[in-house]
Specification:
The protein has 168 residues and is an alpha+beta fold. It has one domain: Hotdog Thioesterase (Thiol Ester Dehydrase, Chain A). The longest helix is centred in the middle third of the chain and has 17 residues. It has a 6-stranded antiparallel sheet with strand order 1-2-4-5-6-3. It is built from 4 helices and 6 strands.
Length: 168
């Protein structure tokens, strides 16, 4: 017995990130992210893959929107937890980045995610918010959550980020 497939496809496009990366060492973190949110410099390519965009940038906080679709599904017809984790890692990191002086970068040390509800394509748009809970010169601690289109929290996270000088 042959099963007929209904193929779908998606095309991912992104802008060359080198323009924004060239500016990174010259801007403090909040200015860099505000320029990205305003479209003045290209967004991170991962955002195109995951359907994420920066919605708001404040000191120690960011909000992203994400529109999951069927291409994000796992074998049981739910959005893969990796998308939600990537979304949370992004808002935790970007919230931390808003507190950094120019010439400084960050990378995740660890992230702890709690998945509270299943996510489907119909759950979007998702709203993810990240906040710095403890700033630092070497390590920053952030937390965040993802809320679905009904206002229900679908996941939360906490994480730590290593701060380091950017190479020229």
């Amino acid at each position: 017995m042959s099963r007929q497939s209904h193929t779908r496809e998606a095309t991912v496009t992104w802008n060359d990130p080198s323009e924004g990366l060239a500016l990174l060492p010259t801007l403090d973190g909040i200015d860099y992210l505000r320029k990205m949110a305003a479209g003045e410099i290209p967004g991170a390519p991962i955002g195109s893959h995951m359907g994420m965009e920066i919605a708001e940038v404040g000191v120690g906080s960011v909000t992203f929107h994400c529109r999951p679709d069927e291409s994000h599904y796992n074998p049981i017809g739910m959005v893969h937890g990796g998308l939600v984790c990537t979304l949370l890692d992004s808002v935790l990191g970007c919230a931390a980045h808003t507190t950094l002086p120019k010439g400084t970068g960050h990378t995740s040390i660890e992230i702890k995610v709690n998945y509270l509800r299943p996510v489907t394509a119909g759950s979007g748009p998702l709203v993810a918010t990240g906040r710095v809970v403890k700033p630092g010169r070497r390590v920053i601690f952030s937390e965040g959550e993802v809320v679905d289109n009904k206002g229900k929290t679908v996941a939360t996270a906490s994480g730590s980020l290593l701060v380091f000088p950017l190479e020229a």
